[in-house]
Amino acid sequence: MNGPVPFLRIESLSKRFGALAAVEDLSLTIPRGDLLALLGPSGSGKTTTLRLLAGFETPDTGRILVDGEDVARLPPAARRFGMVFQHYALFPHLDVGENVAFGLESQGVAAPDRQRRVAEALEMVELSGLERRPVGALSGGQQQRVALARALAPAPRVLLLDEPLSNLDPSLRERTRRELRGLIQRIGITTILVTHEQEEAFDLADHVALLRKGRLEQLGTPEELYGAPRTPFVAGFIGRASALPVRLIAHEGSTAQVELPGGVVWRVERAAPLGGSGVLYVRPEGVRLAEPGSGVVSGEVSGRRFLGATALYTVALAGTRAGETLEVLGDAAAAKLGNRVGLQPLGRGIHLFDSEEVGR
Amino acid sequence: MLVLAWLVVYPLGMVLTQAVGGPGGWTLEAVRRFAHERNEWQALLASLLLSIASVVGSALIGVPLGVLTARVAFPGRRVVATLLGLPVVLPPLVGVLAFMFLYGETGFISHLVQRLGGLEESPWRLEGPVAVLLVHVATMYVYFYLFTRAALAGLDPSLSEAAASLGADRWRTFRRVTLPLLRPALAGAGLLVFMTSLASFSAPYIFGGGFRVMTTQITSTKLNGDDRLAMVETAALLLLALAGLMLLRRTEGRRDAVGARKGIAPAPVKSRSALGTLGAAALGWGLAVLLTLPLLTLVVVSLVPRGTWTVEVLPPSYTLGNYRALVADPVRLKPILTSLWMAGAATLAALALAVAVGMLSRRRAKSGKLLEGLLALPWAVPGTVFAIALATTFSVHAPWVGRFVLVGTVWILPLAYLVRNLPVAGRAILAGFRQLDPALEEAGQSLGAGKARVLRRITLPLLKPALAAAASLAFVTAFGDFVTSIMLYTYDTRPISMEILSSLRQADVGQAAAFGVVLMLLSAAVFFLAGEGRGTAG
Prior knowledge:
The structure holds two protein chains of two kinds.
Chain A: E1 6-17, E2 20-31, E3 35-39, H1 46-54, E4 61-66, E5 69-70, E6 81-84, H2 96-106, H3 111-124, H4 140-152, E7 158-162, H5 170-187, E8 190-195, H6 198-204, E9 207-212, E10 215-220, H7 222-227, H8 232-237, E11 242-252, E12 255-259, E13 265-269, E14 277-282, E15 287-290, E16 297-306, E17 310-317, E18 325-331, E19 340-345, E20 350-354, H9 355-359
Parallel strand pairs in A: 3-8, 3-9, 6-7, 7-8
Antiparallel strand pairs in A: 1-2, 1-4, 4-5, 9-10, 11-12, 11-14, 12-13, 14-20, 15-19, 16-17, 16-19, 17-18
Helix pairs in contact in A: 2-3, 2-4, 3-4
Chain B: H1 2-20, E1 21-22, E2 25-26, H2 29-36, H3 38-71, H4 77-85, H5 92-103, H6 108-117, H7 129-154, H8 157-165, H9 170-199, H10 202-207, H11 214-223, H12 227-251, H13 274-302, H14 321-328, H15 330-363, H16 365-380, H17 383-393, H18 412-435, H19 438-446, H20 451-479, H21 483-488, H22 496-505, H23 509-529
Antiparallel strand pairs in B: 1-2
Helix pairs in contact in B: 1-12, 1-16, 1-17, 2-12, 3-4, 3-7, 3-9, 4-13, 5-13, 5-23, 7-9, 8-9, 9-12, 11-12, 12-17, 13-23, 14-15, 14-23, 15-16, 15-18, 15-20, 16-18, 17-18, 18-20, 19-20, 20-23, 22-23
């Protein structure tokens, strides 16, 4: 990430739990007012990273700099970070207003001022006038918004969101996500979001950090992660992709010639040097259906998922020993189950990696 | 941590070392005497057999009653259900007292039988093993009863519906589905009855006659001044209790079976015939009356003026004089106040310790487990054992090894109550901590609240139900304590239970009963005020 001055900087952060390295040598920077999503499968260390940021865990090594100040060893109460918990963690014995006022009380804000700021915070999340409502009487979506208002009321420097939408009905999720994006943009607060859903990360975040086994796989915009995955893991985790084992035939400049299962040779872009064998990650929109013929990868349609205007076809490649398949996006009427089809590469959405990189 | 070790482990270790230690160094002399004395072996065996019989008897009464009141519809079901749960707040000594007034040689029933049969003497003597067993079963069935009801209420009704849809009839469903799912609850109740019975002192002390169990054996040895032998006996009972605990823990079985809870408890089954409903009602009410009759008796007896009731079936006159004496006579009022403050102080201290352990075990899992174990340990140790252990530890002035002379001071009894309270308070409060989402405390911290403020504003308010449950259970236990009191009390700090005993010795049954009623009512009041009427020691 180049350009604007980083507001939040994580430097070589590490945390072990016994033998398990939950976070290993993680470094990130986030410009002021941007939203970064920590994305990854479960066990990737994204929640631990968030807890290190919040101060619920202390890092073994590394620094967390906010505006130049290292907060890594400060107690949570001294960090002035706001956090929305996965299950919201609203205090069940306090009402909505008392929940939102809690952080203001900790700061010693006087009562009249406090009341005004509680009202403002609730107005921000469109829950005006619900101060005296018990939190148990709220719907899931309302609870989520109270949690957000509570986190924002003390005017934190950084907002931390732990899977903030995972507890909502799918029907509610998209709308809430839109509102959340609007609110964060309006306030302009630097935000870190933990999620395991790529769609959520893509929709909300300016930057996505993909984690795996406690390490950073790639940091970039959603477009960079999808369009230019730096590792096989990124290519496989972000979006759909079929993986095919290939044999390297020639490599000149940034173009490699690889032999696919079945013997057909494709020309693929690849700048970095390669060993003798590789793995090809093919996005469904990276190939198109064609007439079968010589020099064309062909196979039989073994699956079809109707998506409306288009369909996602699974093609079992001919002449392969392991029965490799390739997914391809095509016109909904282009083929039927059992049809013999050819597959033509389109020059994008195809990523080649060395076999060594895959095993890592 | 240190406090717990000092209060729990240290005294017990002291017992074990004193059992084999003497002025002239280590000796097995007392152990040898114990091993060669037939009486001792008989007492140990009697304790074991009595406990097993109590478990079986209590299960035979408690489980059917639980099923009956939870699953069968009959008029007055709710009232019966509540009445049957009453003995849980009953201090053992009061239960024994009530039993005595009803079935004892001079009790109502024997008077009645004597009169009807024209007998010269009382038709029976309520004495010996059978009497003790009767009292045990009549007071301990309540554990099986409450556990059965709780487990039935927690069962997923769709399980028995599934069985029914697979073609099983009601009986088969009960036998093959419901009963196996109740097993963990029943094992828990069994464990509780076994340990309670093993530690039982009041019943064998008052009804035992020549029948000796370990607890009474220890007390008499100790009173005879044979300290070393008393230590060996105490150690033997302790080992028996721990062995029993481990054995029962192992057979307790998996607990996950009851985990599936969903929906609401099924409506009670209506019997298909009017006769069936009538039978259920008669059974329920009959047993409820039979089992709560002793309590009623206690109330009646407490209204009898001293020396007026001798041979009549029912007392000839009633008066509130016994109660008036309790309030008016400072000598009689004092034990009540003493019991109140001692139990109160012990309860507060137990709560504070349990909360501290809960917070510590949340932060550090490993040492927390150990601390939780320490909290629970006194539960497996019969009261008599602890009384002896504390009496031994705190009768010597040796501050550098943590021993002070507390025996004979006002502090020994509250301290003993505290130790005995730790398991109940600990269990309730640790359960409360487990239900507390750590994210709530973290949310408080991230909102800028320091540790003290998080504790005061979030943790403690959220623990309130657990604190109330713990406080009421602990208070009731301490308030009605008899076992440790009899070993450790002094004249100035005699609690209600001691006063009951001395009233009995002076043949002032009305006074004893009045004390008993006060004890019962105060216990019940605390218990129900805390809003934990249905919560049990489990």
